Structures are given as C-alpha cells and as structure tokens.
C-alpha cells in the first residue's frame, strides 16, 4: 500500500472544515484519510464509473459504458492538487479529477457513509393539537409557504389546508401546486357522498373503519387530498391513525409478528362491473435499509388469504394483533371537517376512517384526489433547491 | 380427532369429479379428505373469516370484523349435507355453510394448494418470427380480438398492432381500449423525436442502449405503447430483449449474483429544471412467491451507487455480469417499425432500445403512452369473464 501525504492549501481550508490528509492505494480501492481523522474507501471500479466525465453535460444522464473497462481497472498514478484527487487510469489513457467535497459527500464506507434512516416523525393522539395547518391562498401564491407546509406533511404524514373556496375544482387546483394527479379506477377525482347503490362502503353513511385506500392496486396512491365541501350531517367525524407509530410499537413488542406481516403477502381485491383489480402484498413493506415504507391495511379489500398452510394460523394471530393495535384509542385522532377545510395525508402511512353519519339533517360531501409519492418528493426537492438559491 | 364419513349424492357427483369423502376436526382446523384421495386443512379462524356471510352482498367487500370472535373459535358441530359443509360455531351462535366446490377452489394446504408460479413465457432472438400481431380495427371493434391479443401480450410481454391510422391520437384511442393512461413527468403521451436541446437521450438521434423506462419512479410504468408515425431515417431500428429470459439464465448460472441484484437497492435519478425524481430500487424484484416480477435496468438513470462498502465491489461484478448478458445477441430482436405499426411491451419486463439514426433523409417519429399493470390485468380478467358468459 502506497501512501500519499498532503497539506491543505490555505485557500481550501478556509472554506471547508475538512480536507484530504492522505491517500493510499490498496488492491481494488483507494483509501482516503481525512483531516478530521475519518477514513473512507473508494473502489477503483466505482471511481471510474463515477468520473465527472461519465455524465452527459446537458441531461446529467450517465453516458459511460461500464463494460468498456475491465473489472480490474486501477490507477497508474494518484495525485492531490488543491483539493482535487487526480487519477490516471490503467485503461483507455483516461484521467479523472474528483473534488474532495464530492468524495466526502458520496462516500459509502466507514463512519461518514450516508445515513439511510427515515426522517419521518411518528405520532399518537396528542398530535391533534399539532397538526400543521396553512391557508389555501398562501399555498397557491407562495413557494415558501408551499415548501414549509409540504415539509411538515412529509415529516408527519398529515396536514390541513383551510380557507378553501367552496368549489369542486379547488381540490385539484391546490393539489396541482404539487404536481399532476394520480388517476385510479374511481377517476381523477372522487366524491365521497352517501349513495343509494354504493360500489363500496365509502359511498354509504356507515362508519368506515381505519384503512388505507386501494391496497388492491399494485401501488396504492400516495398523498390523499380530501376537501370538505359540506358536513352538516350528524356524526361523520374523520379519524386518523399514524400507521408508522403503530408499526414501530409492533416491531418493538412483537418482532415475530412484525416479521410475518412483512414476509408474507396476502391478496387484496376490488371488483365491480368494469374492474377486477387484485394484488398480493405484505401488509408491511420495508425499504432495503429496513425503514418502514408503507402499511397496506384494508380489511374490506382483503381477499381470501392463500398463505401456506403451515403459516396460516400464526399469520392470523399476528394480523389480529395489528388489528387490535390499530383500534387502540391512544393512537387515534378524530376531527370533524368543516366546509372550507381540506385534510391531506400519506395514504400509505396514515390510516383514515370516519364515524357513521345521519344525513337527514344535512349533507356530507368530501371531494378527493391523489398525488403520488414520487411527484411529491420531487417537488419538495426542487422547491428546496429553488428557495436555497433565493437566499 | 372426530371423523365424519360421507357418501356423494348422485346429483353432485354427476357434475364434478370430486367430492368430500370425510371430514375430521383437529385442534385448530378441519381436515377434509376428498374423493380423489387428496387432503386439505382449513383453520377454524380462516373458515370463520371467510364465511360467505362475511362479504357485503352488493360490493363484495369483507364486512366481518375478525376481532369480534376469539382466536380460539371452533366448531360445535360439523355436518355434511349435499355437498355443503355446515359449521355451527362456538361463538355468536353463528352457522356457516361452505360449498365443497368453494372449499376445493380456495384450499391452501397440501397438493391442491394454489400454484402461485408465473404464467409468463420467456423468449430469445427466435421470437422475432413469433411476435403476436393484430390489426387496430380488430382491437377497436372486437372484445374477443382484444382479449386474445392482450392474453398474448401478457404471456410474452411484447406484441404488435398494425394498421394504425397516421393520427397523433391513435395511440391513445387504442390504449384506452385497455384502460386509462399512466401519466408521468413526460406527460400523458410523449413524442420520441430528435430535439436540439434534449432533456434525455431518447430525444436525440443517438443509439439508445437497452433499458427499461423510468426506473427512477417509485413504480415505473407498466405497458408501453410506441406508435410509429414515420421512420424514414437511416437506421433507427428498435431493439428488444426479454429481461425475464436473461434473469432466468442469471439465476440458473450465477445464483449469488442474482441474489445480490435482488437484495441490494441502487439509486436511480432523473432531473431537469422542474423535476428531481429519485428512488432506490433493487435491479431485480421478486414477488413473495419467488417469481421474477420486474427488472429495473437503466444505465443512464443509475445514480451514484451508495451500497455498503463491504458489498460495493461484489455488487459491481454482479451488475457487470448482468450488463454483459443483456448485450448478448442471442437474446435480442431488432425490427424497424414502419408508419402504421405500434409496438406494445411490458416496460418492467422487456428492455427496449434503438439503433442510432440519421434523420437528414427523413423523419423518425414515435408517439408513446403507458397503461399500468393493475389496469391491464384487471381488463384481462373482466374481458375473460364477459367472454366466458357469451359462450
């Protein structure tokens, strides 16, 4: 292992609180020791693949063909020059220049490796007094207000917009501030009113137990917007539970149940005259870093379980445990939406329901739509970058 | 264990080739022995949960509250009557009646348990002579033609429609025979033409290596429709590879590489002025039954890998192996679309690309849109049921 020592240039050390102290080559990688004592490893193949010249100058897309070099590509020389690591490669006579700030940002080993844990903050019933609220006019006219409200929604999975005009298109106009809408078999928008021949329980005046929407879809919709146009009926309070909070508790207390609900998929189905939409899903979905991504819980759409015989009984016990926890009043918030209010929540995290209502005294009418997570997260990133530039 | 013997009624045995021969109760389940010698187990809790009365008569949704009974619910009596299993339960004085044909259909244990393996059929370069083709007029006017063409597309992941009118809306009109379109950041439809300031490589005249679209989305689009409005340029042949076939080979030959590509997620990203859409995904996605659901492969959208340091090198080796296999000419079909032809393929299974073209002699213009898998599969089921009734 060869080691190259470096001293910071006075220029560079003035604007950052770290710099590359030394560089050494090992078999397949370069070892970087930083001025703060931390160590990071960069594999040769990774460095070559991520040479700044590998990306298209306009589109930012990766253009380098990884197979144009061998897996054994390695540096012929490594030089440090004013905060830049310069590598002359063993193939194609290529030279790569890496800024040390870039190397620091994208390091993937040791104590500096990127933290992939979730930034979501879970909540229980006390959240009723802390739900983020903003006014529709702010959301429509101010990017900063939109960004701050969306950041809170991202963190907590539930937020309110008030001051909504009593117009059917208001929900679309507001949601479009984020991005285009996610269409489903219920349309681009949907009206939650009591109907005489309902195609599902939402369109009755019955109570609706806590659930996530469209668990029968390959990917259930992300953020749900529910604009209250009128709510003069008796009852009809909206109920919410943070699925993330409930799952965190289950994971802690009953890891074996949690595992079963992650590992085995159950069938979900919605069918009417025109549709028969089915999908198997695990109730709990983790990302590749072990974070809880999603809960799919909809007792009404749960189809006939077809788990392996040896798992069926244990699964039912785990599933019942989750059902019981979801009914625990300590998790639940309940609020009666008024005309002009809109509730927005992450349908794949926060369960929603409603109390039964009697609409003989007055109508209950919510109008809804969805925006998916990819679009939501993208908008949040772009707004963040734009606002950072303004400052 | 109590056992109940039964003889078939002459009526019932006339229309089915099996009947319940005997029923026995064990601790948590009922054991059914069938006339053909097969044995199935039905857990008490599963039977109670799936009592025919548990489902809403209009909407088909599950209405029974599983927590309204205990996990120890069991039969007080089990009776067989003319092909119906009648259970009197230990709780709520409830009685359930199960048709034996239903019990047979939904059994989940033993040799009769549902087969969850995929019905897809993978292909190599010889498929060029067997691509399913139908005419647009048939697809528009005949449900049977649509059903048969969709069935072939479902099985092979690639099919052609010819006789398309040279109109921009023809692709939408045809795709709408299946269902509504999946919108993306590129719009509801998109035009693949060479542009002066491209936002991605598709909109140049460069060759486009094999890829799946929008791997950076939380769920990439399902079926892709590409209608050729003109292709008078030199070159510009479309290329396709069945990712399923390639992955089957990888799984067989290099199971450890296959596992790495399933287990670890890599980052994908598309960004322009208005968007920054990012997602981590494993390149290979299995369903809970071990079937290959999906390949996400897009070298252009692959962002800077942030795998754990100890995995990075091995992952690169596995990834390069896949890259190499995807380039193997034995897998590839190449066809030059003519005006009036439309190719349709499962974007999450079949990779597509194109050869470079020179459009100084004539324009190359493809117009595209997407329909997602949930909608496609639903339409196929509903058409199948409708056509079965017609017969």
Automatic annotation (TrEMBL), chains A, B:
Cofactor needs: Fe(2+); L-ascorbate
Domain TauD/TfdA-like, residue spans: 142-370
Keyword Metal-binding: yes
Signal peptide: none
Domain Gamma-butyrobetaine hydroxylase-like N-terminal: 24-104
Annotated GO biological process: carnitine biosynthetic process
GO molecular function, one term: metal ion binding
Keywords from the named record: Dioxygenase, Iron, Metal-binding, Oxidoreductase
CDD domains reported for this sequence: CAS_like
A Pfam family annotated for this UniProt entry: TauD
Protein family according to the UniProt entry: Belongs to the gamma-BBH/TMLD family.
Name of the protein this chain belongs to: Gamma-butyrobetaine dioxygenase
């Amino acid at each position: 292992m060869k080691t190259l020592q470096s001293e910071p240039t006075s220029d560079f050390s003035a604007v950052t609180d770290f710099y590359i102290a030394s560089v050494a080559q090992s078999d397949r990688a370069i070892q970087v020791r930083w001025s703060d004592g931390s160590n990071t490893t960069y594999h040769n193949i990774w460095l070559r693949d991520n040479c700044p010249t590998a990306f298209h100058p306009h589109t930012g897309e990766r253009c380098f063909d990884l197979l144009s070099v061998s897996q054994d590509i390695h540096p012929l020389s490594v030089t440090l020059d004013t905060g830049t690591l310069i590598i002359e490669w063993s193939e194609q006579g290529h030279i790569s220049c890496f800024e040390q700030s870039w190397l620091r940002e994208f390091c993937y080993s040791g104590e500096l490796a990127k933290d992939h844990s979730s930034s979501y903050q879970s909540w229980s019933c006390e959240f009723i007094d802390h739900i983020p609220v903003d006014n529709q006019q702010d959301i429509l006219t101010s990017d900063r207000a939109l960004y701050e409200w969306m950041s809170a929604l991202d963190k907590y999975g539930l937020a309110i917009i008030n001051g909504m005009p009593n117009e059917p298109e208001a929900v679309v106009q507001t949601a479009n501030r984020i991005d285009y809408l996610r269409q489903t078999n219920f349309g681009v928008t949907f009206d939650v009113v009591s109907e005489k021949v309902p195609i599902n329980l939402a369109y009755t005046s019955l109570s609706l137990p806590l659930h996530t929407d469209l668990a029968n879809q390959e990917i259930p919709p992300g953020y749900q917007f529910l604009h209250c146009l009128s709510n003069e009926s008796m009852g009809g309070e909206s109920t919410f539970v943070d699925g993330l909070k409930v799952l965190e508790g289950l994971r802690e207390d009953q890891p074996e149940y949690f595992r079963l609900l992650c590992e085995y998929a159950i069938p979900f189905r919605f069918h009417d005259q025109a549709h028969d939409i089915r999908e198997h899903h695990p109730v709990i979905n983790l990302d590749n870093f072990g974070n809880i991504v999603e809960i799919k819980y909809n007792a009404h759409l749960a189809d006939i379980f077809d788990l392996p015989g040896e798992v069926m009984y244990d699964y039912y016990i785990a599933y019942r445990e989750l059902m019981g926890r979801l009914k625990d009043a300590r998790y639940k918030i309940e609020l009666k939406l008024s005309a002009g209010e809109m509730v927005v929540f992450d349908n794949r995290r926060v369960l929603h329901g409603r109390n039964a209502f009697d609409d003989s005294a007055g109508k209950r009418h919510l109008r809804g739509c969805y925006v998916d997570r990819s679009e939501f997260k993208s908008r949040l990133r772009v707004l963040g970058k734009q606002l950072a530039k303004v400052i």
